Amino acid sequence: MNIFSSPDPAVKKLLGWKLGDEEDRWALKAVDSLVKKMRKRKNHCYGTVEDLEYALANPGSRSRCVTIPRSLDGRLQVSHRKGLPHVIYCRVWRWPNLQSHQELKTSEDCLFPYDARSEQICINPYHYHRVDQPNTGKIELSNKMSLLSSTPQLPPPNSLSSLLGSKSAVCGCASSSSCSSSSSYSSSFSSSFSTGQPNSTLQNHQQGGHLQQIGHFHLSPSALSDDDDYLSQLVPTISSHSIIAKNTYARPQPVYWCSICYYELNTRVGEPFKVSVNTVVIDGFTDPSSESRICLGLLSNVNRNFTIENTRRHIGMGIRLSCTDNGVLLFNQSDSAVFVQSRNANFKYGLQATAVCRVPPGGASMV
């Protein structure tokens, strides 16, 4: 099938940037479906066909996000194949041999990355970078584990991390472990050893800012990832030995990632809202506030005048704040524009520190 037989000039033009020997019929359907989705919507803040053409024609220039709505499972069906949207279109226009979303990293300018879990997914192929997969496969691990096959003795404690690799070192080789992280504004790490053996013991000693963990345990196969299942058959049982992890900082888990204060003119109204969930909506309605929603209509102020009352009527559906790996994303859900002054965003976009940015209805901005 000739990929240029499409009657739609926009589809034909976009297929001109297609790379590799990807199946022509499948690529045609993928691009045709994308063009139809973008033309069907009325909100151009999510990108247009022209924005995509500009990004493909000017790969070295900054370009806008080009998005499609997120499906229920986050994947896109094209003909007989189903995959992640950004992977599909990166494969069409940039890397024909792309195998997995784990090979992609979002650029800092992207407002709707796939991992942000927002309602839209950016498929602009130039908003993603390809990263090299670490070359630490089973061959390297099996060579190291062959040293243990002839002896039941435990290696020195300092060699545990190099022996089991980064994955098992982080999770503590335990049958139950917890590793948690928050946004770039604050981060913490916590891990625990457990055994699956009734007579196992665990002691934590914290001195001088360091955490010393001592435990007697057996290595559980459930602690290994699916990629390393074979390791459970090679590693001998480890028991009756103490493993000391030194120089590990113990930091408390943050309770919240942001604090929101509401002001009327120069007067703060109400108490600060402390947000611990990844996404929070701030609107002007009067429903009781919940963990993921703040309703400003509930707040009273005896000094409120006509100007303030008139302004509050325009809050409407308000804004949505989402904490992502790339920062905090503000989405304007109301019918009026909102104005943002963010030193972090201004520095990122090369603006003056005190610059104020206008976010139109339906628009978004990093803050």
Automatic annotation (TrEMBL):
Tree of life domain: Eukaryota
Domain named MH1: residues: 9-137
Gene Ontology biological process terms in this record: anatomical structure morphogenesis; BMP signaling pathway; cell differentiation; post-embryonic development; regulation of developmental process; regulation of multicellular organismal process; SMAD protein signal transduction
Localization terms from the record: Cytoplasm; Nucleus
Entry GO MF terms: DNA-binding transcription factor activity, RNA polymerase II-specific; I-SMAD binding; metal ion binding; RNA polymerase II cis-regulatory region sequence-specific DNA binding
Single GO cellular component term: cytoplasm
Keyword match Disulfide bond: no
PROSITE patterns in the record: MH1, MH2
Domain MH2: 257-367
Family: Belongs to the dwarfin/SMAD family.
UniProt name for this protein: Mothers against decapentaplegic homolog
Species in which this protein is naturally found: Meloidogyne enterolobii (Root-knot nematode worm)
